[in-house]
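Exercise 7. Predict the joint structure of the components listed below.
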Amino acid sequence: MSTDIHKGLAGVVVDNTTISNVVAETNSLTYRGYPVQELAASCTFEEVAYLIWFGELPDAAQLRSFNERTRSQREVSRSTISIIDRLPDNCHPMDMLRTAVSCLGAEDPAEDDNSPQANQAKAEAMFAKLPTIVAHDYRRRQGLDRIAPDTSLGFSENFFHMCFGEVPPKEVVRCFEISMILYAEHSFNASTFTARVVTSTLSDIYSSVTAAIGALKGPLHGGANEAVMHMMLEIDDPAKAAQWLRDQVAAKNKVMGFGHRVYKDADSRVPTMKDAFTTMAELTGGEKWVAMYEELEAEMLSLKGIHPNLDFPAGPAYYLMGFSIPMFTPIFVMSRITGWSAHVIEQLAANALIRPLSAYTGESQREVPAATARL
Ligand code: CMC
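Solution:
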């Protein structure tokens, strides 16, 4: 048996998938064969969610029925809301979301039905309810009354409505929609793999999503979009950005929003999100953040040859949309629920328990000393 160690599973191909394809050599990412930047240019997030789950873009009738089905499920039970309301105001919203998804599972009488139809229905219910949960939690922390979902509004418009009581100009909604499309799916990233590991034990989809939320929270993964904005606020002045970055690199600190395990040349999602971020800056007078972005990007490229990843433009774009920083990773969850749940269903369709090996480097086998010799 081979004892080669693949630290972090780097370069290891674990299974087949038909959901998305990351081709590092050409910097391309496709969902079901479609380049993600083309989807972001012309589709709604609801169309892309449908594509990720069902393998094809919907026609008009399919989209109408999908929207009716999901929009009508946006309300969240009183019991889940009351559990969220009992959480400390200062807990991270990702902790709240992890707890809330557990509650959705506990409330679902079909929790352990792992048929593809049952899991598809649960995935759509989470897609519908997660924005309501994130918006409710945001408002309760501000001491504001909750705003009920509006079934006449699309996914992104409804989220703004539930957070702020109004829908912003369509250009802002479009920038948010683009971020939802770009965040939706990314093959065997850490949180998706986590979901597949849990699923492989034949546990339920809510357990898989709860575990995936825990994996996404970390700053090396989804938590980076929050960390980027904290970093930018700390730097504050674009003129100080290059020196700040040089200091970080000299201290061997990781700079959030840069680097990627698979893309070494560039992250294919970045140019599209950078355009959306620039649009947000033009709409809100936030050009300072774009100037800082460009300083940091240029300095990192010249010092280390490392490119930004999607979290680098997404963090400041969400800031300019008016979201509080701790909401950024929960917003990522609202999108990635599509990819996670598609992978849960795919894993179950050809399941094998995920159980790797380890190379033991501890004490060699020895006898337990007799109690009289130990005590
Ligand atoms: N800042 C400074 N140096 C870096 C960075 C960075 N962000 N990323 C990689 N490096 C350097 C690293 O120090 C190492 O240098 P050396 O060989 O001289 O020691 C080399 O590049 C390889 O780094 P690694 O950490 O071994 O590479 P990895 O493939 O394990 O890392 C990563 C991938 C995403 C964990 C890493 O790039 C990182 O920590 N980035 C910052 C956090 C971040 O932005 N995460 C979001 C990832 S993408 C979106 C998502 O998944 O949510």
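Discussion. The pocket of carboxymethyl coenzyme *A is lined by residues 8, 189, 220-222, 224, 254-261, 304, 306, 309-311 (CB under 6 Å).
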